[in-house]
Amino acid sequence: DALHNRRVFLRAAIAASVAWTAAEVFDVEHALAWAAEQTTAAQPAAFKVLTRAQADVLDALTARLLPSVDGRPGAREAGAIHFIDRALASFNAGQKQTYADGVTDLNRRAAEKVTGRVGFAALTAAQQDDIIRDIESLPFFQAVRFDTIVGTFALPTYGGNRDYAGWHLI
């Protein structure tokens, strides 16, 4: 089983690397800059690819992957969800369906886990963590984790990592 998990992870990592290598550096920098603007805007721009409901689920997921702890900012404060949306609207468009299917799966798992809850974003942090452990080997999780890290820890000069939020987390 460990060998299978390693293979799934390697396939996802290779796919993500190919997508990022093929992406224009300008497009990546543009997405990071746009994400940073959205985290400081009084009224963030509407999402380009994600619905509000999808964004809420992904925001909850990214906040569990890189949470804010003891007053230190995490993925939410760094604007990772805005980076992910912008990436899906441009250089990472090939993963739109992976994200859509993954969000649907998270909400389905949440409904099975806790009766009466609407979706993943409505679960407690502990319940979300249980579901995350169940999906760690899926390509969707690998994609979200990779994009969350990039959107949180990119060089501030590229527009990500607003106010060095990701670096403060380190």
Describe this structure in words.
It is a single chain. This protein is an all-alpha fold and 170 residues long. It is built from nine helices and no strands. The N and C termini lie far apart (32 Å). The model has no long low-confidence stretch (mean pLDDT 79).
List keywords for this structure.
single chain, 170 residues, mainly alpha, 9 helices, globular
> What is the overall shape?
globular
Low-confidence parts: none
Beta percentage is under 5%
In total, how many beta strands? Answer: 0
Characterize this entry briefly:
The chain has 170 residues and is an all-alpha fold.
Q: What's the SSE blueprint?
A:
Elements: H1 2-22, H2 25-40, H3 52-65, H4 75-78, H5 80-89, H6 96-113, H7 125-135, H8 139-153, H9 165-169
